[in-house]
Structure formats: C-alpha cells, structure tokens
C-alpha cells in the first residue's frame, strides 16, 4: 500500500489466501509454492520484470539469496535478468552471507566498532558448555533463519541451555510441521523437515534493558532515511513489537549506516538493539535484511522510507504528505489489538490501521478476535466506532 501511494505498480508472490490478496493496492499476484520456492520466485520475477523486489519476511530473503546463487551457475538471458533484479534490489551479493548469519553479522559489527553483546556460533553442545562456563547467566540462544521470536530462547541454567540448544539446532518436530501445513496452511517447513536440515545456533550474552530498533531505506550502500523507535510492548517475549515510541538516537543510526555501507546494501532493512540499562548505549543484536514493521510509516522528510527509496530510483520528488500521528507512540496493527486494548498507552497511541483497505482491516480484527476474549473484542469494536 505504501508503494502504491508512492506511485508504484505493486505485484506480489504469495500463497493462496494470504492477507495481501485482500488489498486493492495489488495489481496482480503470482502463486508461491512452498515445495518449489525458488522455481516460484524465478517464474514470478521473469513474468513481472520488476524494477525492485522487496522481501517481507526472512524466508523470502533467504530464498532470494539462494536463487541468486543458483542463477550464477545457470546460463542464459533469463538467469542473467534474475541475477540483475536481485542484485539491484538487495545490494552486493558478497553481503548476503552476512545478512543471513547472526555470527557473521556480529563479526562485521565488531570490525566496524559497533557495540554488540558477546556472541559465538555454536557447532556442538560442548562448545556451548565451554562458552557458558566463561560467561554469566542468563544467555540468549538464537537459530539462524527464524523470525518473530520463534528462534530465540533466554536461558537461566545449564539445563535450560541444553534443552534450548537441542530444540533450536534440530529440524522441526514432525507434529509441528504437520500442524503448520495441515491446520495453518503453511508448507514452508516441509522441505527442511524432509531434508532433516539442522539449523545454525549462536549464543549471546544477555543485555538488561529495553528493546529498540531502527528501520532504514538504502541504495547502493547509502542510508536514505530512517525511523528509530523504542519498543514499549511486544506480542511475545523477544517477538514482534506491538507498541513503540519514536525516538532519535544517533548511535543507532551510525551503526546502521556503517553496516549498510560495509555490505553495500540496497532496499529496506531493520536493526534491533538492546539499550543497556546502565550506560544507555545501544548494543546491536540483530539485522533483518527485509521490510520491517515501521518501514511503511510515512513520517515526513528523512523518515519516509518508501518515498525516499522510490524517489532515489526514479529521480522524482517524494510522494504524498506525512501522516499526523499526534504524538510519538504508535500501536502497530494488528498485533497491538491482541494485547491490552483498554490500557492508557494503547488508547492514547496513534493506530497504524489501513482504513483505506476495509477487507484487510477486517482480517486483522478477525485474527485479534480469534486469540482474545469476548470482552476485548467488544472494546475493540467500540474503539473502532469512535475513530
């Protein structure tokens, strides 16, 4: 929707029944097949001939990286076009291995003198035990290629660490894969399960303090615009933010600028930080090489990521006026509606609801309703009527 407002023709690759299909912003769509993901993406790119490809989740980002490598090995004009489209959209391929690996990202950050928690990639339980014997609990274990808090475990004891490592390192359990495929319609876990692909796990020192993040638009290693925020509420621990407060933080911006320049990154991405409760310094903990939650917020000059990206690509002026938030607190739809909707913080926030897309709003509210008690749903409807 933000790209349409910027004057773009928007097309999507997605599974059937995806919420994006309910929007009027979509010109056309292409079928994504989880059992043949690279073939699906290649076919869509060749049919669409896009100027820009924007991955909206980590799996799409990883698929694009793999598709690029596959097309390097292949010959012909089609493979050449796909390589060029991915490289234009995501930046230099030499950086793909960094954006897909927690440990490599932390190594690059340290080389750029960016503050990070102590981090190590783990190849075995023995390595984890040695690391923990030299560091204090709690610690954080993370699995590469996961998002939304699903691949993060905070451990307080060696017993918890052992259990978390085995869970994160192992392929997904058959029952989990079956539930996702048959009940949720999500077949993305089937191929890794069939291949029994183990996940790479890293361990990181725990930082006490609030979460913060910065979303940036970039072009050929240059940051064009950014939105920084402190996280007030999350959907689940270490999961997606539901309530944020806009902030200005030069250290976060400088860290993002250094990484983007080092990787020669293009497109949209986000960086997650922990604000040390003692020093107040932001410590980089993760990079999301894709569009993140706040990327679509049109907050004006220097803070409208989509407009700045499109204007740089087309050499035209940014499109549209900024949104009036009426304050610095934003409730991110729809996840914020699955929390405490009667809180003063929620009630006073600007609600990032796409009112121009009623079908999408109804889907979001249906999702909130399915996981909330009846009283919460009644309060949500009352709030909607008052908007």
Description:
The strands form 3 sheets. The chain has a 7-stranded mixed β-sheet with strand order 11-10-7-8-9-12-13. Mean pLDDT is 87; it is low at 372-387. It starts with a helix and ends with a helix. The chain is α+β, with helices and mostly antiparallel strands and 387 residues long. The chain has helices at 2-5, 37-48, 58-73, 77-90, 96-99, 102-111, 125-134, 158-169, 174-182, 190-195, 250-263, 305-314, 344-348, 358-370, 374-386; strands at residues 10-14, 26-31, 119-122, 139-143, 152-155, 201-205, 211-219, 222-234, 241-247, 267-275, 282-288, 329-332, 350-352. A hairpin with an 8-residue loop joins strand 4 (139-143) and strand 5. It has 3 domains: 2-90; 118-205, ATP-grasp fold, A domain (Dna Ligase, domain 1, 2-Layer Sandwich); 211-386, D-amino Acid Aminotransferase, Chain A, domain 1, CATH 3.30.470.20. It has 15 helices and 13 strands. The longest helix is centred in the N-terminal third of the chain and has 16 residues, at 58-73.
